Amino acid sequence: MNIEKMVEIGLLFEQYKELLTEKQREMVSLYYEEDYSLGEISENLGVSRQGVYDTLKRSEKILREYENKLHLVAKLKEQEKFLKSIREKVVDIKEDLLHNRDCANLIPKLENIEEICRELLK
Amino acid sequence: MNIEKMVEIGLLFEQYKELLTEKQREMVSLYYEEDYSLGEISENLGVSRQGVYDTLKRSEKILREYENKLHLVAKLKEQEKFLKSIREKVVDIKEDLLHNRDCANLIPKLENIEEICRELLK
């Protein structure tokens, strides 16, 4: 399977899986998360290969449509970019503080901020 | 109209409006955002009052169902809580830094972090 597509559908699935039917959710999970083949899914669920294929195609379409409307994956990527930026600035400030004994006590407080930012992305 | 419900639907609408039909979106906006009465919406859109009422009720149900599955409003409230916490800690650290001339130059860097956190919530 195409790695890029696996990553793309994986991210979409993480955000929007609750909006799929149980059957769609199961097939997408088996195919994209557990790397089952169409044949294996077909055998395991007692559905024709064509049926599995059609359900996967339909699910991918649905997931992309939700992303077009809600942009949750795009927003998450933006947030991760900002978080990385905050971490770099915190490291930067910490290095400055380490050179000044009077201010070194502020480092735990800074680390606290960094921790909260990490929570923000959960 | 009940203020609590107005706030609740307002928040849900902000997150999930793109998942409503255009007609649903228009009516919810007129009723909850622009404070139109059922009668006014009915007159403006050429729909019976009952029709407006039914569409609003259906839309509210849809919005709540999406929140039950995606929890976007709940997550946003959590994030705002964390952001407030970061701001308080930044103010706290800034006060400490103001007492030490050597470290006062770090204040702009801290404010930078706070600014990024604000971006995180957009």
Features:
homodimer, 122 residues, Arc Repressor Mutant, subunit A, 2 domains
Strand and helix layout:
The structure is a homodimer of 122-residue chains.
Chain A: H1 3-16, H2 22-33, H3 38-45, H4 49-70, H5 72-98, H6 107-120
Q: What does the model show?
A:
2 copies of one chain form a homodimer. Chain A has 122 residues and is mainly alpha-helical. Chain A contains 6 helices and no strands. Chain A has 2 domains: 68 residues, Arc Repressor Mutant, subunit A, CATH 1.10.10; 48 residues. In chain A, helix 1 packs across helix 4, helix 2 crosses helix 4 and helix 3 packs across helix 4. The mean pLDDT of chain A is 91. Chains A and B meet through helix 4, helix 5 and helix 6 of A and helix 4, helix 5 and helix 6 of B.
Tell me the radius of gyration of chain A.
21 Å
Q: Summarize the main sheet of chain A.
A: none
Count of spatially separate domains of chain A = 2
Q: And the CATH topology of the largest domain in chain A?
A: Arc Repressor Mutant, subunit A
Low-pLDDT ranges of chain A: none
Report the structural category of chain A: mainly alpha
N-end to C-end Cα span of chain A:
29 Å
Number of strands of chain A: 0
Oligomer: homodimer
> Helix share of residues of chain A?
over 70%
CATH architecture of the largest domain in chain A: Orthogonal Bundle
- Count of helix runs of chain A: 6
Please trace the helix and strand order of chain A, writing H or E for each element: HHHHHH
Per CATH, the class of the largest domain in chain A reads Mainly Alpha
Mean pLDDT of chain A: 91
CATH superfamily of the largest domain in chain A: Winged helix-like DNA-binding domain superfamily/Winged helix DNA-binding domain
State which percent range the strand residues of chain A make up. under 5%
Largest interface: A-B, 32 and 32 residues
Shape of chain A: elongated
